[in-house]
């Protein structure tokens, strides 16, 4: 991301100033203040932008200019923005990516790059035409454990990969969160196969150096939502938790008033836009699935069986690679249960095991890797995006372009089409990434 600013610092603006934006704003204002500068914020909610500015000042950084979302283009010119960071609601990403590219700016966007095929095609076409760059902030690639998997596979440790078996579990705290707010509507998030699995499908594309060819999916809303909630006996009669006595003892509820950060970012901001961050996960209106099975065939010939569960008792994942010289198995337990009393009682661990043919299995040493900030990935990602390392050689090819963003979406978007038709979808026909 080159800059011609006289002070040598790249000028960033953030659009969409919710929880995720805080991580980027803090990284720019603190560790990377020598090379990066946050100059403006844009959002539909002025109160949330003001909260970010208070946090910046508390970090010792200056408050920055704030703009209503509809003045995004004017902001780019007036604030001489070099690079736009897109951390808004998924459905709106394309609008800001395309506007920034058209204005000659580079973009870093949160995942998913967008939520449907027409929007995805528009981003690809605009990037190709303008010659500007889109980086998709796939932080999971920067998790040292995931880097290790990539290294081992690229080194041929288990030979050629024939197939992948991948299971991802979101627990009844984190998984439930997608059913409390805007993600619960497919039009906003693309559903979990897009919003969440874009990370996982990107990892597999990157690990295997492959693109999805054929995708088949089955899924449903099994635990959350009005009908399932009543069927399983979990449903309570309220719309949002705040000021609802029925939510007081609901283990699926989130209580905004008890958390200072949730209170100021959401509860105290909702008078402006009616954004309720604490909807009842069993209230009507959920249009996404919580249990998803996907079968993929890649252009390398490898296949993947994948399962996403958003109502698990523990959080983490298992991914197994079957190769022509053995098998690689990664197990990550982020937390072994959800404690309603104290998250401090929850435990996690991770194992990476190589099982060669005709030899005993051996563990790959991944001890000492952080579990916070998405396994230490957020800090490593922001160092590359904002720090002096940003022009360094990236031998693992972790930086993700708009084409990688599109390739990761392709599996989820094809899977969504398969859910609708009940038939396998030839993903390669949906989007030309050749
Ligand atoms: N990579 C990761 O690990 C990770 C983690 C969390 C979130 N995310 C991504 O970050 C993004 C934001 O997620 P979040 O959890 O911060 O959500 P959030 O709900 O906390 O914030 C979303 C923000 O977008 C704003 N917004 C809504 N409509 C807008 C519009 N039309 N124009 C501009 N702004 C608008 C909202 O006012 C809000 O401030 C999502 O795309 C999500 O997928 C990524």
UniProtKB/TrEMBL annotation:
InterPro entries: Gfo/Idh/MocA-like_OxRdtase_C, Gfo/Idh/MocA-like_OxRdtase_N, Gfo/Idh/MocA_Oxidoreductases, NAD(P)-bd_dom_sf. Residues 11-138 form the Gfo/Idh/MocA-like oxidoreductase N-terminal domain. Residues 150-346 form the Gfo/Idh/MocA-like oxidoreductase C-terminal domain. Belongs to the Gfo/Idh/MocA family. PANTHER family: BILIVERDIN REDUCTASE A (PTHR43377), BINDING ROSSMANN FOLD OXIDOREDUCTASE, PUTATIVE (AFU_ORTHOLOGUE AFUA_4G00560)-RELATED (PTHR43377:SF2). This is Gfo/Idh/MocA family oxidoreductase. It comes from Luedemannella flava.
């Amino acid at each position: 991301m080159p800059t011609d600013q006289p002070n040598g610092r790249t000028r960033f603006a953030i659009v969409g100033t919710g929880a995720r934006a805080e991580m980027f704003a803090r990284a720019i204002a603190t560790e990377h203040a020598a090379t990066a500068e946050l100059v403006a914020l844009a959002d539909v909610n002025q109160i949330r932008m003001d909260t970010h500015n208070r946090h910046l000042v508390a970090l010792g950084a200056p408050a920055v200019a704030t703009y209503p979302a509809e003045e995004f283009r004017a902001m780019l010119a007036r604030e001489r923005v070099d690079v736009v960071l897109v951390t808004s609601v998924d459905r709106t990403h394309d609008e800001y990516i395309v506007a920034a590219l058209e204005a000659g700016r580079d973009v870093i966007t949160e995942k998913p790059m967008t939520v449907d095929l027409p929007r995805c095609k528009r981003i690809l076409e605009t990037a190709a035409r303008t010659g500007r760059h889109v980086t998709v902030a796939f932080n999971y690639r920067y998790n040292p454990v995931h880097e290790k998997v990539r290294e081992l596979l690229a080194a041929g440790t288990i030979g050629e990969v024939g197939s992948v078996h991948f299971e991802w579990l979101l627990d009844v705290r984190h998984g439930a969160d997608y059913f409390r707010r805007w993600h619960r509507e497919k039009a906003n998030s693309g559903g979990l196969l897009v919003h969440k699995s874009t990370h996982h499908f990107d990892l597999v594309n990157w690990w295997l150096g492959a693109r999805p060819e054929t995708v088949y999916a089955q899924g449903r809303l099994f635990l959350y939502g009005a009908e399932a909630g009543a069927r399983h006996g979990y449903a309570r009669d309220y719309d949002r938790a705040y000021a609802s006595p029925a939510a007081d003892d609901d283990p699926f509820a989130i209580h905004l008033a008890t958390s200072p950060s949730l209170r100021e970012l959401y509860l105290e901001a909702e008078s402006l836009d009616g954004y309720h961050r604490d909807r009842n996960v069993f209230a009507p209106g959920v249009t996404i699935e919580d249990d998803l099975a996907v079968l993929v065939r890649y252009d390398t010939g490898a296949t993947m069986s994948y399962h996403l569960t958003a109502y698990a008792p523990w959080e983490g994942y298992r991914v197994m690679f079957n190769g022509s010289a053995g098998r690689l198995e990664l197990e990550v337990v982020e937390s072994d249960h959800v404690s309603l009393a104290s998250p401090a009682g929850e435990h996690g661990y991770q194992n990476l095991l190589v099982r060669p043919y005709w030899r005993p299995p051996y563990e790959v040493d991944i001890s000492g890797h952080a579990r916070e900030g998405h396994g230490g990935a957020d800090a490593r990602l922001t160092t590359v995006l904002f720090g002096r390392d940003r022009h360094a050689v990236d031998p693992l090819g972790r930086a993700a372009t708009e084409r990688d963003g599109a390739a990761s979406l392709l599996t989820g978007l094809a899977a969504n089409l398969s859910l609708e038709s009940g038939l396998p979808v030839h993903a390669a026909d949906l989007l030309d990434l050749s």
